[in-house]
Automatic annotation (TrEMBL):
This enzyme's EC code(s): 2.3.1.21
Designated name of the protein: carnitine O-palmitoyltransferase
The organism's taxonomic lineage, starting at the top: Eukaryota, Metazoa, Chordata, Craniata, Vertebrata
Catalytic activity from the UniProt record: (R)-carnitine + hexadecanoyl-CoA = O-hexadecanoyl-(R)-carnitine + CoA
Residues of the Choline/carnitine acyltransferase domain: 173-752
Spans through the membrane: 50-74, 102-125
Organism the protein comes from: Nothobranchius kuhntae
Family in the record: Belongs to the carnitine/choline acetyltransferase family.
Cytoplasm in keyword set: no
Top-rank lineage group of the source organism: Eukaryota
Length: 783
């Protein structure tokens, strides 16, 4: 146990001559350097807090204001209109000379003036960012008002903003009017109901609007004045943290590696580069060097979800879970063949190089130590029911060695699994390989991931990788941001040598990764087995189909003068109608990060316009009629998407009204029915955010395949899609085997056909080709 001795700073022995104290200089040096590193980070945080606190001004602007005021005083003019003299009269220090008192008074006045200017600029920027008409203007055409607005936003935005610089200037999410929400809701459910059902729902809505709705609305408006966001805290608590079912499949989601290439076939090397890249990203995050996400290069989005990316874990509770966040863990926890290892990634205050991390990972892979009793499938507790896990945690992991080892996992920067399986586009049946790859990332073996961690990274035996993320702390675009960065840095900056190993040298004196110890009782093992049985049944029920649609992409769609997202949504409506013979309530995720602490809103993609188009196309109406109806449906979808982004959505408003009603102990038949409606088609687009990191024209194969999630309804589908460059669309489709009416592969076939039919309808003269488009490079599959 050499690694255990190296972790001890001193040893002592009691002898007849007294106490023999032996200091470990290596350990003391490590403690000293860790302390220096910690204080450097604290200083950086203080500096960044100051810079963000005075934004859009800068700390140096204070000196400019002070010098300007002092200069005007020496010209015998008083810019303060007597305030400097008033301050001088009330200074508590009477021993100063008159001239010194005047200077101090001028500095105090300058500081107050500077703070007032900052407040005014921030208030102006907040008001400017509340303007959203620019989003509803036709693409490529900007009104004079919007041009002036953009110029003012750039003037008041300051220079070189940090990641969190805009947080204090973002507007609060507005509370929509009750009548607007009710009207939009009734419009959204019209194609899903017959006349009698719609009349009944209209009566319920009218009664709610005229009575209870106004009372609940008053409480929401009160909360919106007090809280930064009237939705986000309740959304996190009631939608995510209070869910008592398994979070595996039902809540967690995944992201895939490159589809057609694997940078290295060596598992340890891939892990070495990527883990190093993750910590480079965390360093940028801590220093706030990541650029704020700007729409149209001018409009900032909220960045608060980045705060809990690393060093975070979901903690189970009997009534509700919590999300715990710690500061800057210097290690990760690695799972391999039933064992958990603590791997330090900092040595003597420096981040280990990729080659050194590879060396440490290889040590874990070569370790033949068997798992402790009950250790191998311990992770199944995080995959089962939350109440069972909370009780087991309190009973078996609240003290002793189990508590120390569990604390180690929960406080780690993130979790890593070294998987013995191989996944990629292998063999002739590449589609089936992708399906298995997706299921592995979503749930694995149900015990070889730690589903409570903010995110877990999986490295397969052949060098492929993937990520599984817990949903409560942030939404998919935030996880996709760090994943894009990691893949780009791994392949394009760090790279590998000719043998496929990480570049650099190895310090062979590095302490070995420390295997965590456990004392699992038979009673605890029984609970692990029960949780595994629940999780395994859920995992086995998931039907997944992932495919890369290469016949055309958003390039040809845009030539039809149609929004690519609207095109996909109409294709999904057409495919679902052909698959089930009816329409369903459709969920498309939209972000509300234009507002402070904004997360998501729902776009109800099944509309009167979309259903009219689908029925016309399936009913054999003339092509020109179908094209007109399609464009009306697409424009309606885009309008709803923009409304959702700008605070005009309906579902989060209805959700919060429902929460208030429960707090007040009042029952609303209207809200009960609205909140119980199943989302049988849940969809989400995964955009490529950091386009500058990739060459999507010449190297489109070096782009993540996107990610996916499990079905929201037992009898429904989950569909995630991603546009890669101009010519590829990746789709991830999920449903459940237990429902005889759903089939992921069949639905995928319907989506393919719908995509072809829509392009044929919109551009009859535009040839589709199954071959590689001109200007797009051929890509080779993994072998």
């Amino acid at each position: 146990m050499a690694e255990a001795h190296q972790a001890v700073a001193f040893q002592f022995t009691v002898t007849p001559e007294g106490i023999d104290l032996q200091l470990s200089h290596q350990a003391l040096s490590e403690i000293y350097l860790s302390g220096v590193r910690s204080w450097k980070k604290r200083i950086i945080r203080i500096k960044n807090n100051v810079i963000s606190g005075v934004y859009p001004a800068s700390p140096s602007s204070w000196l400019f204001v002070v010098i300007a005021i002092l200069a005007t005083m020496y010209t015998r003019s008083d810019p303060s209109m007597g305030l400097i003299a008033k301050i001088q009269e009330h200074l508590p220090v009477s021993q100063m000379s008159t001239q010194c008192q005047a200077v101090v008074s001028a500095v105090l006045f300058s500081t107050m003036l500077w703070l007032m200017l900052i407040f005014t600029m921030r208030l102006c920027l907040k008001q400017l960012l509340s303007y959203h008409r620019w989003m509803f203007e036709q693409h490529g055409k900007m009104s004079t008002t919007t041009k002036i607005w953009v110029a003012l936003v750039r003037i008041f935005s300051g220079r070189k903003p940090l990641l969190y610089s805009y947080q204090g200037s973002l507007p609060n999410l507005p509370v929509p009017a009750i009548k607007d929400t009710v009207k939009r809701y009734l419009e959204s459910v019209r194609p899903l109901m017959n006349d009698a059902e719609y009349k009944r729902m209209t009566n319920l809505a009218t009664e709610f609007e005229s009575s209870l709705g106004n009372r609940l609305q008053w409480y929401l408006k009160l909360k919106s004045l007090w809280a930064s966001n009237y939705v986000s805290d309740w959304w996190e608590e009631y939608v995510y943290l209070r869910g008592r079912g398994p979070i595996m499949v039902n809540s967690n989601y995944y992201g895939m590696d490159f589809l057609y290439v694997t940078p290295t076939p060596i598992q340890a090397a891939r892990a070495g580069n990527c883990i190093h890249a993750f910590f480079l990203y965390r360093r940028k995050l801590n220093k706030e060097e990541l650029k704020p996400w700007l729409l149209r290069s001018a409009v900032p989005c909220c960045s608060y979800q980045f705060e809990r990316m690393f060093d975070s874990c979901r903690i189970p509770g009997t009534l509700t879970d919590t999300v715990q966040h710690w500061q800057d863990s210097d290690y990760i926890v690695v799972y391999h063949r039933g064992r958990y290892f603590r791997l330090r990634v900092y040595q003597a205050g420096r981040l280990l190089s990729p080659r050194e991390i590879e060396f440490q990972i290889q040590r874990i892979l070569d370790d033949t130590t068997p798992p402790s009793q009950g250790e191998a499938k311990l992770g199944a507790l995080t995959a089962g029911d939350r109440i069972s896990w909370a009780k087991a945690r309190a009973k078996f992991f609240s003290s002793g060695v189990n508590k120390r080892s569990l604390d180690c996992i929960e406080r780690a920067a993130f979790f890593v699994t070294l998987d013995d399986e191989e996944h990629s586009m292998m063999g002739e049946d590449s589609a089936e390989c992708l399906d298995r790859y997706a299921k592995s990332l979503l749930h694995g073996k149900c015990y070889d991931r730690w589903f409570d961690k903010s995110f877990s990274v999986v490295y397969y035996k052949n060098g492929k990788s993937g990520i599984n993320a817990e949903h409560s702390w942030a939404d998919a675009p935030v996880v996709a941001h760090v994943w894009e960065y990691t893949l780009a840095v791994d392949s394009f900056q760090l790279g590998y040598n000719e043998e496929g190993h990480c570049k650099g040298e190895v310090d062979s004196s590095l302490p070995r990764p420390q295997k965590l110890s456990w004392e699992i009782t038979p009673e605890c093992e029984e609970q692990i087995s029960q949780s595994l049985a629940v999780a395994q049944a859920l995992a086995d029920d998931v039907d997944f189909h992932v495919f890369s649609f290469r016949d055309f992409g958003k390039g040809k769609i845009k030539k039809c003068r149609v929004s690519p997202d609207g095109f996909i949504q109409m294709a999904l409506q057409l495919a679902y109608y052909r698959n089930r013979g009816t329409f369903c309530l459709t969920y498309e995720a939209s972000m509300t990060r234009l507002f402070r602490e904004g997360r998501t809103e729902t776009v109800r993609s099944c509309t009167n316009e979309s259903s009219a188009f689908v029925q016309a196309l399936e009913g054999g109406e003339p092509a020109d009629v179908c094209r007109r109806l399609f464009r009306a449906a697409s424009e309606k979808h885009q309008h709803l998407y923009r409304m959702a982004m700008t605070g005009g959505g309906i579902d989060r408003h209805l959700f919060c009204l429902y929460v208030v009603s429960k707090y007040l102990g009042v029952d609303s038949p209207f809200l009960n029915e609205v909140l119980s409606e199943p989302w049988r088609l849940s969809t989400s687009q995964t955009p490529v955010q950091q386009v500058e990191l990739f060459d999507m024209v010449n190297h489109s194969e070096y782009i993540s395949c996107g990610g996916g999630f499990g079905p929201v309804a037992d009898d429904g589908y989950g569909v995630s899609y991603m546009f890669l460059g101009e010519n590829i669309i990746n789709l991830h489709i999920s449903c459940k085997h237990s429902c005889p009416e759903t089939d992921a592969h069949k639905f995928g076939g319907q989506i393919r056909k719908a995509l072809h039919d829509l392009l044929k309808l919109l551009s009859p003269n535009l040839k589709e080709s199954n071959k590689t488009d001109e200007g797009r490079p051929e890509v080779k599959k993994d072998k």
